Structure to design on (204 residues):
């Protein structure tokens, strides 16, 4: 397992949360699969990867569009989050990323930019023991345009008081990487540095 490089020109580090800091993807997948099953949708790993990075209610809207269903985005979204939070305690940090966070804490400004909701993001960071490293957390509650729009990351940069081109973003999602590139930032795909196990987890 190689260490993830931090670019010498980086003056601020921005981290996505799910699948980047915390290995939550298996738990998210299971929560979506169980929730969708009740509505007659077979939620596959391909579908999960396709929808990665879309905010909670937007995912339900997208599923409605794809499957011709009429699920209530808020109701079904909350149901999914409830299932996810029930398994959250088993979530572990992604070690190569956690290593960077611990090493650069106090050396470079750091922020979290996630498509998730604030209460879940804070709970996730606490679960993996990373909450103490971040004062700046930008969530779907703080922005108008979710990833792949660059707003999340630009807001992180503003709060850190660092120009976008000097920010390095750590991401696992295609939409997130596009958002970082469109923000004019350096991007690292963390999935090159750990084994992604979505969908191959403890099937119930």
């Amino acid at each position: 397992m190689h260490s993830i490089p931090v670019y010498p020109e980086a003056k601020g580090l921005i981290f996505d949360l799910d699948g980047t800091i915390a290995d939550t993807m298996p738990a998210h997948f299971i929560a979506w699969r169980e929730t969708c099953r009740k509505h007659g949708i077979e939620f596959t790993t391909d579908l999960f990867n396709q929808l990665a990075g879309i905010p909670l209610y937007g995912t339900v809207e997208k599923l409605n569009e794809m499957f011709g269903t009429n699920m209530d985005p808020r109701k079904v979204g909350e149901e999914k989050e409830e299932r996810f939070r029930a398994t959250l305690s088993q979530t572990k940090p992604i070690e190569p990323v956690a290593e960077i966070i611990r090493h650069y804490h106090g050396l470079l400004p750091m922020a979290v930019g996630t498509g998730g909701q604030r209460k879940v993001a804070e709970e996730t960071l606490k679960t993996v023991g990373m909450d103490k490293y971040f004062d700046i957390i930008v969530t779907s509650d703080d922005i108008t345009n979710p990833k792949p729009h660059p707003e999340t990351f630009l807001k992180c940069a503003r709060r850190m008081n660092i120009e976008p081109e000097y920010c390095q973003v750590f991401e696992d999602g295609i939409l997130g990487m596009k958002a970082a590139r469109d923000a004019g930032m350096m991007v690292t795909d963390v999935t090159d540095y750990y084994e992604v196990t979505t969908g191959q987890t403890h099937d119930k």
Remarks:
- The first strand starts at residue 12 and ends at 15.
- The CA atoms of residues 83 and 105 lie 32 Å apart.
- The beta strands are 12-15, 110-113, 136-138, 167-171, 186-189.
